[in-house]
Specification:
The protein is α/β, with parallel strands linked by helices. About 45% of the residues lie in helices and about 15% in strands.
Length: about 650
Amino acid sequence: QEKIILSTNESLIPGRTYRLLAEIYPLTRDPILDIYPNRYSAVAYQLGKAQEFPNLKVSAIIGRLRYELLSSLEAKLGEDADWAKALLFGESGLKQEYITQLTGAGIIHLIVVSGMHIWFIYLIMVSLLRMFFKREIAEFLFLPLILLYAALNNWSPSVTRSIIMISVGILARWLQSPVSGAQTLALSLFIITLLSPLQLFNIGLQLSFVSVLVIFYGLPNFRLFSRDKILSNPFYKVLNDLQDGILLSALISIAITPFTLYYFGTASLNGIIGNTLGIPLSGILLPLSFLVLITPQSWYLTKIFVIVYRAVNILWIRWMQFCYNLPFSLSANYLSLFQAIALAVIILWGFFLIRGKFKFALQAVIPMSLLVTGFMLIPTWQKPEASVYIFNCGVSDCTLIRFANGETMLIDTGGTKKKGFAENILTKSDYSEESWLSKNLLPWLGKKGITKIDYLVLTHLHSDHCGGLITLLNHKKIKHIFVSDESTKQELWNYASKQKYFGTAQIHTVTDTCSFFLGKAKLKFLHPDKSYHPLNENNSSLVCRLDTKKERLLFTGDIEAEAENYLVDNYAQELKADFLKIPHHGSRNSSSSEFLQAVNPQEVWITASSRNIYHFPHPETIKRLQKQQTKILITGNGTIRKMIDSRSN
């Protein structure tokens, strides 16, 4: 079954069943930028009024029960309920600020419903049931209860995986056929693959199984105290368990690093410290959340549970923020697939050492070194194809040109979450990491092994063109920046300059028409020249033409008819191009007939999402393009890629 997002114009209650008329828009997967498959296949926009009708299906009953339980937590805990809802039901209602801090602190796995929670619940429930029943009966009663819990969590893959692993262990014990950790892991993986083969490619499964492997086989044979001391003195046993916990936390953090750097561009050793207090705190919060959930709100005992929960929650938040500020983490540092494999090989060799397999580690030095070297060199053997990418980044602009010699040029940096553009120039409050570039382009660049941008062109500093500038400067080395003299007067530019974001980048301020040779290609700036004085920021956009051996590509920022007319009057011959990035997202105020005739492109590119509040591209613009019989491509249908010949004439 495919899942869709329902956008409603009235309050509908989750878990109930409604009949309504809706307009459905498919969510297309960008063939270039989208690394992971979409969770949802479409968005349905409600039309008219919804009608509720009874539904006695088990799934509907479970949905209603989940809603009632979540509502109960909200009624008892208010704003603090988000943590309990995340712990008990995997509800993703936490503030983005908290999610960022949990990730940076390396303890996000403690607050979402994960495999660790299921093992913890297993220990608590079976221990309680064993007070009244034998172990076999306790485990038998546990299974339907945990299946109900999994249903309340919408059969989350992490929950389902853990239940399968626990069930395998229980079944083996019932059959009196003891199995090793490796056998349990292998059998669980087989069952999961049998039920859902695509789970093999699920990052959650990969991280989960790597972590379990480390728990089973990664702990070194090292103790601070002798075995006799540990067995005879509870204090030494506690210290030994603490040592093992810290070591396991460190080893798991190291083992999953190739995966997190490849998929998310993050790695955190902060969790080594974070887990020391984070695990006990989450271990207290989880049962407290459960007690608050099951006790009636009117009970005095419930009020005590709520007070204790809030006190522990404050400690948890402060500990999270402390760990987040520790310096042992990386963000937006993506590895290519080959780099991730090379790092995994190095880490695997390190595990042989700490497990005392010195002879094998010594024998493996040469073959593993050759393997690592090979994986690191593979990207250098593959010469990049000269291409231009006009990215699907909503109603904003970002274009990447890769040259055959490996150099790269980026024109604009996409937008921000902030709505609006045009006269809305970014202010200091908008300088955040929450940009399209940080969420989409940085991972893609990492996968492509692009570690630097040789040439950055900033057409102008409106938020839909430079929303990712600060993020880009923070995470990528920039060699050359081209900017207009108008842009250097803007607040964003002054802020970035004062904060030394530009680093060692060479700044080229364009004050008149000029040309630069980029390897064997030529970049010519046509606008604004020294005689042009714009009335608005859009018309001061840099207009540049990239010349290769066989093509001319014209990039126009957000210029409107006024600037277009000036270019036609003064640089008509220079405007001729094979490919044109349409000005201002296809606005009716741009792309005049005279300008289009002067450029006479074979193909045009319009940067606009398929559904936007400005209704770009406007029908008047499309009609003018169709009149010229020009091929029209729109980024809302997916990132546009065009192969080019980046050699010079």
